[in-house]
Structure to design on (441 residues):
């Protein structure tokens, strides 16, 4: 994560004392702006208020009645996460919007996030005009796994972790070891920012020193571990896990560290997959793909949609377990859409690629989802009374491992650095076909 270091603050962030993290010099985290990593979601909201949410439901913005005086096109765009201790981030627009009464921003965190660090240490934060990160008072609902804040402005937003073990996931061969580090991400005192909001400032994450007698490392809840699932020991800010001589069943084990803070005891967890034949996955895979789908009913006015698309993508490793995040370009090259009053040909258009790839020991799956706005050339049917539009938002969705659609898909590999395959499925909405070729160093 690129940082532009500025003010140095020396803070006893978590309080000194036996068994508590030792105070460290802390640096204000001033980071680059995130770059778009997926398609934007937009919705027009007016003085009556309303809610805009991402398609996956991870983020939603609820604007109360009267918060804006005129109809406003709101947007949510996923961006790269640059904040300290952050994994996800979004840009909310339009930039410069000010609410006359606070809007509510809700962020849903994943179940594995709740296991990796205690939810009470999660915060929702925004990036201010000086590119510093500002956590707001955050309401945590552990039942729905939701974080909520109120705000009077829009900007870039993210979720910050208080403590974590890094890496958060690992793959270790039998009898081999993996070192984890305890990291804490803390905040300086609050001040008024962005005109009217009182918020602290995020500091860069550091490794924390722990007193051995007041911190307990465990494997699957057993202090020190055992010969079946692996052993663990901790010294200073580091935890060393040693895999057992034989692969356990199940082969995924939890390495945890419990330690004391000024807020009481807390636990952080990292998941480790133990293997007896460890695969060395490439750090990156790049290539191209094609995609064709034909969905909708056969009759006039049934919103029948045919799409031909292609893309260029780079998958970058997110962890040592074979999970990759994709970036690149998704392009609609041709197609046809049958609207209620018009028959329309799709022209070329593109959008950022948003997808992922998952490698296992002998198989893989990949997919993407996105919306591409393209110009269209329409012909109004003789019985049609409506006006033909000039643009159409094309939804494009693919999953090589979709078991809901009968058909075939080539998703086995002999070399993880060379993934070539095809998919031909007869989904209920219509046939879907794809080909791809991804390779790595």
């Amino acid at each position: 994560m690129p940082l532009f270091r500025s003010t140095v603050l020396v803070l006893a962030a978590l309080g000194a004392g036996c068994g508590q993290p030792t105070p460290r010099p802390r640096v204000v985290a001033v980071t680059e702006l995130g770059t778009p990593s997926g398609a934007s979601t937009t919705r027009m909201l007016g003085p009556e208020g309303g809610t805009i949410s991402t398609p996956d439901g991870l983020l939603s913005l609820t604007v109360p009645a009267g918060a804006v005086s005129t109809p406003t096109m709101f947007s949510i765009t996923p961006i790269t996460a640059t904040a300290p201790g952050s994994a996800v981030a979004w840009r909310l627009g339009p930039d410069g919007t000010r609410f006359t009464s606070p809007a509510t921003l809700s962020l849903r965190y994943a179940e594995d996030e709740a296991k990796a660090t205690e939810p009470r240490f999660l915060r929702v934060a925004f990036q201010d005009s000086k590119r510093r990160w500002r956590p707001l008072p955050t309401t945590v609902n552990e039942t729905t796994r939701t974080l909520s804040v109120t705000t009077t402005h829009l900007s870039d937003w993210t979720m910050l972790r208080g403590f974590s073990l890094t890496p958060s996931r690992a793959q270790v061969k039998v009898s081999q070891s993996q070192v984890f580090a305890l990291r804490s991400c803390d905040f300086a005192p609050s001040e008024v920012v962005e005109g009217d909001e009182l918020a602290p400032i995020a500091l860069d994450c550091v490794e924390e020193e722990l007193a051995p007698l007041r911190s307990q490392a465990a494997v699957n809840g057993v202090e020190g571990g055992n010969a079946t699932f692996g052993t663990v020991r901790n010294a200073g800010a580091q935890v060393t896990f040693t895999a057992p001589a034989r692969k356990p069943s199940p082969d995924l084990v939890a390495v945890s560290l419990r330690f004391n803070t000024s807020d009481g005891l807390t636990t952080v967890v990292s998941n480790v997959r133990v293997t007896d034949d460890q695969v060395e996955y490439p750090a990156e895979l790049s290539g191209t793909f094609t995609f064709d789908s034909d969905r909708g009913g056969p009759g006039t006015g049934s919103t029948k949609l045919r799409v031909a698309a292609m893309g260029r993508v780079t998958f970058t490793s997110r962890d040592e377990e074979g999970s990759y995040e994709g970036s690149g370009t998704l392009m609609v090259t041709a197609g046809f859409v049958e609207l209620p009053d018009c028959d329309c040909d799709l022209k070329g258009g593109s959008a950022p690629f948003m997808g992922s790839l998952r490698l296992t020991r002998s198989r893989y799956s990949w997919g993407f989802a996105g919306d591409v706005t393209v110009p269209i050339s329409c012909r109004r049917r003789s019985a049609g009374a409506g006006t033909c539009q000039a643009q159409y938002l094309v939804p494009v969705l693919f999953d090589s491992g979709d078991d809901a659609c009968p058909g075939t898909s080539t998703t086995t590999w002999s070399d993880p650095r060379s993934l070539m395959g095809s998919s031909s499925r007869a989904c209920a909405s219509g046939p879907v076909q794809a080909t791809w070729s991804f390779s790595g160093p």
DSSP finds one helix and 37 strands in the chain. Residues 97 and 153 are 6 Å apart (CA to CA). Confidence is low (pLDDT under 50) at residues 1-23. The longest helix spans residues 111-116.
